[in-house]
Amino acid sequence: xxxxxxxxxxxxxxxxxxxxxxxxxxxxxxxxxxxxxxxxxxxxxxxxxxxxxxxxxxxxxxxxxxxxxxxxxxxxxxxxxxxxxxxxxxxxxxxxxxxxxxxxxxxxxxxxxxxxxxxxxxxxxxxxxxxxxxxxxxxxxxxxxxxxxxxxxxxxxxxxxxxxxxxxxxxxxxxxxxxxxxxxxxxxxxxxxxxxxxxxxxxxxxxxxxxxxxxxxxxxxxxxxxxxxxxxxxxxxxxxxxxxxxxxxxxxxxxxxxxxxxxxxxxxxxxxxxxxxxxxxxxxxxxxxxxxxxxxxxxxxxxxxxxxxxxxxxxxxxxxxxxxxxxxxxxxxxxxxxxxxxxxxxxxxxxxxxxxxxxxxxxxxxxxxxxxxxxxxxxxxxxxxxxxxxxxxxxxxxxxxxxxxxxx
Length: 408
Description:
By secondary structure, the chain is of the alpha+beta class. The protein has two domains: 4-246 and 395-406, no CATH class; 250-370, 2-Layer Sandwich (Conserved hypothetical protein from pyrococcus furiosus pfu- 392566-001, domain 2), CATH 3.30.1760. The protein has helices at 17-20, 30-37, 45-48, 63-78, 111-115, 127-140, 155-164, 189-200, 211-224, 262-269, 318-331, 351-359, 374-382; strands at 4-5, 9-12, 82-84, 90-97, 100-110, 119-120, 142-143, 147-151, 171-174, 180-186, 205-209, 234-241, 247-248, 250-254, 273-278, 289-294, 297-303, 342-346, 365-369, 393-394, 404-406. The strands form four sheets. Strands 1, 4, 5, 6, 8, 9, 10, 11 and 12 form a nine-stranded mixed β-sheet that branches. The longest helix is centred in the first third of the chain and has 16 residues, at 63-78.
């Protein structure tokens, strides 16, 4: 078996690519998706969020929702909006957001290597979210949401992808969120073989985002059986080199100070952190440094060095240090998955969003964090451990609908 393989992509006719491309299914709620898809009959949201085409009270996990998604997919195929390539190939995929650019490879990745941990994980999955993706893949008989994979950068891969980018792109469009998506075909047999060989020589790949999609693909493969080389034994992926990935900060806001006033809370914080008032919003400059916004005042916090564990890839993450040395012992929030007193703000929203949540009175205190680094993610995955919830926020996001994988 190959770690990755080329495949016959199902993708928009070039004239309709901008009409089809949509945000990932899990970054919009139903109402947001309904608004985004209004007046856009070819939007992939009709497939990834098909409840938008059913009565407003419809349960998004009801059987008729998955059936509607399949119906909408078949309609776009029937109408010639989505076409399937005649031969298997790879696709180069460039994302540009502001000044940041990254170029990946669209491929299908091995379920068997996922099961054996050659494709490494760093998050727990939730059964209900897995079930949703299983039902969606099964109903559509296709994987439409790519798993975001990364690997240690490789000169051979870089060279072949760069060569592909010298040709005219198949798609070159800017989505409604301002992110530019460009795709080139890699159909040359020699280039395909060289890419497959280069990835087969790699010891492992890493899931950056898409743990539920990859887990669901594994369950579909088990349900359908096969010889390990069937289409359902591989899952849709986009693979980016680690040196091009962009992880943004994932910040925390908390409703109350656990019964303390601000002065008492600051005194407690000062036992584990150096506390310095700041004249402006604090964006941490290095690991071990945090911003804190309390009563319209920013502070720069620096954790005591002796509180950073030396040989614990999870415990030394900034999200873990803040949780274990401040949020849990001082604010009595121990289960961040379920505790309603804490919320999370992706770095894409900016530090102004933290100030807004606190100034409104909704929250009492906010914390800004230094972004988790790719090396940290890989270290955790290599140790077969999991990161705390809300540790990474990847930007830019992949587009849904540009290339899908049909299960024959």
